[in-house]
Structures are given as structure tokens and as C-alpha cells.
Specification:
By secondary structure, the protein is an alpha+beta fold. Helices cover about 40% and strands about 20% of the residues. It has 7 helices and 4 strands, in the order βααβααβααβα. The structure holds adenosine-3',5'-cyclic-monophosphate (CMP).
Length: about 140
Amino acid sequence: MERTLSIIKPDAVAKGVIGKILDRFESNGLRIAVTKKIQLSVGDAQAFYAVHAERPFFNDLVDFMISGPVVVTVLEGENAMQINRDLMGATNPKEAQAGTIRADFAQNIDANAVHGSDSVENAANEIAFFFSEREIS
Ligand code: CMP
């Protein structure tokens, strides 16, 4: 059984599509092991996206991620990481396949509705960033 981390970003939370996005996961064989709605601090967002610290979009990314609450979720299932990435679609919603979460709910590459871990190894680190093991069932 594999685990991955999903973040429903401030744009999608503000749009009121948390339920619709969580339904995509459950309807495609992923189990919600734990989920919570939280407001990230500047430090949280900078630390979570530290790998992008040198990229030109880093400050905009941090500003966007603290612009409102997010929903962080641990998804579980066979091939959970790749299934979640397939459900999300391309990072830039303009390139995302029809029927994916980003094609249906995202505006642009910054406000792109969801984040998902891009490897099983990163998933473990991202899950540990938000949840303790005893919170995950
Ligand atoms: P995410 O999967 O959350 O990981 C980093 C985020 O940076 C990405 O989604 C985008 O929302 C944002 N971003 C903004 N510009 C770029 C870019 N040029 N390339 C990749 N990610 C970008």
C-alpha cells in the first residue's frame, strides 16, 4: 500500500470545490487516510517548497500558498502517487488533459488547484511535514 500527499490549494478552497476534488480521489480507488484544512504561515510555505527556493517563481508561490487555507490529505492505495498525479494533470492547467483536476478547476500555473508529491520518497517527507504517524489511519 502506497501513500502520497495532496494539497488542495487556496484557489480551489476559495472556489468551494474541496468536496469535488476529494471525490475524484475516492472515485478513483484512493483512500483518504487523513485530511485537514489549515492556514500555512510564511515559514511553513517556504519550508515545504524549499526545493524551489532558487526558482524565480518562489516568492509568488509562497505568497499564493498563504493567501488562504489549504486542505492537506494523505491518500493511500496501490500506485497512489502516480494515480494522484494522473488525476491532477499537468502543472500548467493550459497543458492539462481534459477531465483532470487542473483542467477542470485551475486558473493558471500559480493558482493550479492542487499539489501532489512527485515521487514516493518525496511523499514520505511531505506527509511527515504535515502529519504525525499516529494521526494517519
Ligand atoms: P506544485 O506541484 O505545487 O509545485 C510547485 C509549484 O510552483 C507548482 O505546483 C506551480 O503551482 C508553481 N509554479 C509556478 N511557476 C512554475 C514553473 N515555471 N514551473 C513549475 N512550477 C511553477
